[in-house]
Design a protein that fits this description.
2 strands; 77% helix; two-stranded antiparallel sheet
Length: 361
């Protein structure tokens, strides 16, 4: 395999294609219906995504001294590709939890299977069937992720070094998801709660743990691992904060989701928490009433979305989140500069920090 430094997403795609074809063959031996469902999951995995998590894992590997090509690099690509299966699990379950109708501009898994139920005139409740299918397929993706990591061909000692980060990541993302659901149920409006969810649900499994995974497989120096961990924690939260802004202000053609969907889903983001905090400090009951009535309203129309956008600007919440993104990115850069990381890893990680935190271009 040629160097993956310049075309990592294509290498990850090929690794996933090969692995998923093996697993689909297993499913075909079980039952044609199982194979049909598994094929829908495989298409979901292969048809979209920026391969961000494997990218950070790869550059953690390179930062730790891992080779750009050869058998060890090929094994690293396969190990990094397992992160896409965890991502698939998280997205399928997240869409179900949030009752999202679209993902990447296409019907979500639970919607797709509910539609199949209706089209084929099956018995029972179509929506319940779609939800059950999404739960099971998300679980299947998580199972396949673990299997892929353990069969990637990584040396046994390297795999043992990587497992603590892998285990922590899987627990943290589910913990963050639960706190997200709990926060919506409680109506939590605090910035502390919003940031904790960002740390666990996004920063951990998007940036920090993938970097640690790659560095561990490469047997990186402790100083490098510490710097990558700090860099990943800061950039991971900044990444989520940018995502929160896009969830309210983003272009649907870019995000693949309807404008204002985070508002309809009742997302208790830092953006909203900053707005609530400022409105309370100002004694602005009108703003509080508006935000509380709109947040979690599934019937929220575009005009009301636009009204909320204006209030978020007026309260300074957008500016506060932008400033925090800038602060986090600055701290991440200083962490990266604190140790000698070889090129091209150092430069690429600095570029990635900008790419994932400034997605308004």
């Amino acid at each position: 395999m040629a160097s993956t430094d310049t075309d990592l997403p294509e290498h990850v795609h090929r690794a996933l294609e090969g692995y998923l074809e093996q697993r689909l063959a297993d499913c075909r031996e079980l039952d044609v219906a199982v194979a049909e469902a598994a094929e829908a999951l495989a298409r979901f995995i292969l048809d979209g995504g920026k391969r961000l998590r494997p990218t950070f894992a790869w550059w953690g590997w390179r930062a730790g001294g891992g080779a750009h090509s050869g058998p060890a690099a090929e094994a690293m690509v396969r190990a990094a590709s397992a992160l896409e299966l965890i991502q698939a699990c998280a997205l399928v379950h997240d869409d179900l939890i949030d009752a999202s109708a679209t993902r990447r501009g296409k019907p979500t898994i639970h919607v797709r299977f509910g539609r199949t139920h209706r089209e084929r005139n099956w018995r029972g409740d179509a929506d319940q069937f779609g939800a059950a299918a999404a739960i099971l397929l998300g679980d299947l993706a998580l199972t396949w992720a673990d299997d892929l990591l353990h069969t990637a061909g990584v040396a046994s000692d390297a795999l043992q070094r990587a497992l603590p980060a892998w285990r922590a990541m899987r627990t943290e993302v589910l913990a963050g998801q639960y706190l997200d659901v709990l926060g919506q149920a409680r109506g939590d409006e605090s910035t502390a709660a919003a940031l904790r969810i960002d740390e666990l649900k996004s920063a951990s499994y998007t940036v920090r743990r993938p970097l640690e995974l790659g560095a561990a497989i490469a047997d990186a120096d402790d100083s490098v691992t510490t710097a990558l961990r700090e860099f990943g924690s800061e950039i991971g939260v900044a990444f989520q904060l940018r995502d929160d802004l896009l969830g309210v202000f983003g272009d649907p053609d870019v995000t693949g989701k309807p404008a204002g969907d985070d508002l309809r889903e009742g997302k208790r983001t830092l953006l909203m928490a900053e707005a609530f905090e400022t409105a309370r400090s100002r004694g602005d009951d009108d703003a509080l009433d508006l935000l509380r009535s709109c947040l979690g309203d599934p019937e929220l129309d575009p005009a009301r979305v636009e009204t909320v956008r204006g209030v978020l600007h007026d309260l300074g919440a957008v500016r506060a989140v932008e400033e925090r993104i800038e602060q986090l990115t600055g701290r991440a850069g200083r962490a990266l500069d604190s140790v000698a990381i070889p090129e091209p890893a150092a430069g690429t990680l600095a570029d990635l920090a900008i790419a994932v935190t400034d997605r308004t271009r």
